[in-house]
Amino acid sequence: MLNSLWNTFRGTRVGRSIFRVGLPHSNLERAQVAISSFFLHFQPAKVNRRSLKFRTTLGLGLISLYLFLILVATGVLLMFYYVPATDYAYQNMKDLEFVVTAGQVLRNMHRWAAHLMVLFVGLHMCRAFYTAAYKPPREFNWVVGVVLFLMTLGLSFTGYLLPWDQLAYWAITVGTSIAGYAPLIGQKLKFLFLGGHVVGESALIRFYVLHVIVLPLAAVMLIAVHLWRVRKDGGLARPDEVRTLQEDMPQVPVTKTYGLMELARGSTSAVGIKPEDEVFTWPNVVFREVLLFMATIAVVLVLAIFWNAPLEQIANPVHPPNPAKAPWYFLGLQELVAYSAFWGGVVVPGVLVTALIALPYIDRQRRGVGVWFSGERKVALTIFTVCLTIAVVLTVIGTAFRGPNWSFQLPWKPVHVEEGSH
Ligand code: HEM
User: Fold this and answer.
1) Ligand 1 and 236: CB distance under 6 A
2) DSSP one-letter string for 68-104
3) What angle do CA 366, 369, 370 make, to 5 degrees?
4) How many Å apart are CA 23 and CA 282, to the nearest integer?
5) HSE (CB half, 13 Å, CA atoms) of 303?
6) Could you say which DSSP state residue 44 is in?
7) Element (H, E) at 419
8) pTM of the complete model
9) Which ranges of 286-330 would DSSP assign to H, the alpha helix?
10) Does the CB atom of residue 145 touch ligand 1 within 6 A?
């Protein structure tokens, strides 16, 4: 039934103008369908069998991408109901809850997808590190990734303020005060973002513009570059690529572009890759991608149905909660800032970001590429794991073990949040 509908549509003038190639039946058509489609040609017509294995990537990059798409879709819908003004923003949240059909689920989906995206982009970065995927020729794509990670944090942080409740207001107040600790430019930067010295009307409109226009557009462009580079850097990192590229065929660039006929014959052996190691993107990769997309939507939907996004009292600039906490992904930083504003708020994050960007240019040995936790990279693995563990421990302490006046508190003891005592 579906097949005949599709065939009828494809046979029409309109159908042929949109879909240049029909459902493929031969290898030539399988190659054509990937090459001639805007969305599919981000991937090569053929991929190495290894990239299909779940353990190669754990699907983390794709899940990050799908979460971003879910965020764009739900975000556009939310924009219909949201006015970025302090007089309306909070009421809009209430309307979503009580007036708009499925408004609460929509808001919940956006919220959970945002939290999950921060988490999954972070996990994807760890997977790229632990499989040494940042080594040549993928150094630049790693750097693009680091910028994407920072952008993901920026997207989530700017969105945090929009509900204009106590949680939003004070999380952003705390978060932006951390930025203010940077020497010389800190206060100026803070003023630029807030449009004043405190979070208010000007901050709300600035955050809104950053959240719905500037950062999403920049992220779309950068994600496109990122995915394009995955393809042009020779697909996903593989242990045997070192042998293929360096020893077998040192003169062949990584980014050999296969001819259509070459692909149709199933021959890519020109770069030392055995034809039986490769499969067509259509349907092998596309099928898995669609499946993972549906699974991601399903998980976000289930979370959204069962757990509501928080909404506290309307923002009150004279009644800070005690403790006032930044969003969870900055709580490790807030914990450090509690010890030393300068070291915790400026030096440590500055050094970490610089080290992440510089990593592929420092650690250039091609050892362990495409191998999880390769024993040949003991030093790099140890340093990264220690930093990661500290970051996680600090975040957990900041999230669960800090009470009023940032005093140490056990999470299983009754929580006592003081209002207005600052
Ligand atoms: C919006 C955020 C991001 C999206 C949507 C994204 C998406 C992807 C996708 C779909 C892939 C293909 C393979 C896979 O699924 O793992 C990939 C590969 C890659 N990503 Fe990302 N990524 C993001 C952020 C990052 C970050 C933060 C880093 C590291 C700092 C990074 C570094 C890499 C590297 C090095 C590869 C190549 C992996 C390989 O060859 O095995 N990406 N990315």
Assistant:
1) yes
2) HHHHHHHHHHHHTT---STTTHHHHHHHHHHTSTTHH
3) 170
4) 10
5) 17
6) -
7) strand 418-419
8) 0.90
9) 286-306
10) yes
Identity at 37, one-letter amino acid code: S
| Residue that has been written with the tokens 């450090």 in this structure | 336
Q: Where are the beta strands (DSSP E) in 319-373?
A: 321-322
Q: Which secondary structure element, helix H or strand E, spans residue 67, and what is its range?
A: helix 60-79
Asked whether 237 lines ligand 1 (CB < 6 A), one says yes
Q: Taking Cα atoms as reference points, which of 341, 314, 339, 393 lies closest to residue 174?
A: 341
CB atoms within 10 A of CB 345: 21
Q: Where are the domains of the chain?
A: 23-411
Residue type at 46 in one-letter notation: K
**In angstroms, rounded to a whole number, what is the distance separating the alpha carbons of residues 162 and 96?**
13
Structural tokens at position 198: 């405190």
**Residue 385 DSSP SS3:** helix
CA-to-CA dists, residue 399 to 38, 396, 406, angstroms? 43, 5, 11
Q: Do the Cβ atoms of 180 and 189 come closer than 8 Å?
A: yes
Top-tier CATH class for 23-411:
mainly alpha
Q: Which residue's C-alpha comes closest to atom 15 of ligand 1?
A: 61
Number of neighbouring beta carbons within 10 Å of residue 328: 17
Q: How far apart are CA 338 and CA 331, in angstroms?
A: 10
The Cα–Cα gap between 236 and 208 comes to 36
Q: What is the rounded CA–CA span in Å between residue 131 and residue 56?
A: 9
Residue 150 CB contacts under 8 Å (≥ 6 apart), including other chains:
353
pLDDT digits (tens, 9 = 90+) for 216-238: 999 999 999 999 999 888 889 99
Q: In this structure, which residue's CA is closest to atom 5 in ligand 1?
A: 65
Q: Which helix (H) or strand (E) holds 278?
A: strand 278-280
**Tokens representing residue 246 in the block:** 């360096």
Answer whether residue 136 shows pLDDT above 50: yes
Conformation bin of residue 325: beta by default, left when phi > 0, alpha when psi is -120 to 50: beta
Grouping H, G, I as helix, E, B as strand and the rest as coil, residue 47 is strand
pLDDT digits (tens, 9 = 90+) for 86-131: 999 999 999 999 999 999 999 999 999 999 999 999 999 999 999 9
Q: Is 138 in the pocket of ligand 1 (CB under 6 A)?
A: yes
pLDDT digits (tens, 9 = 90+) for 191-209: 999 999 999 999 999 999 9
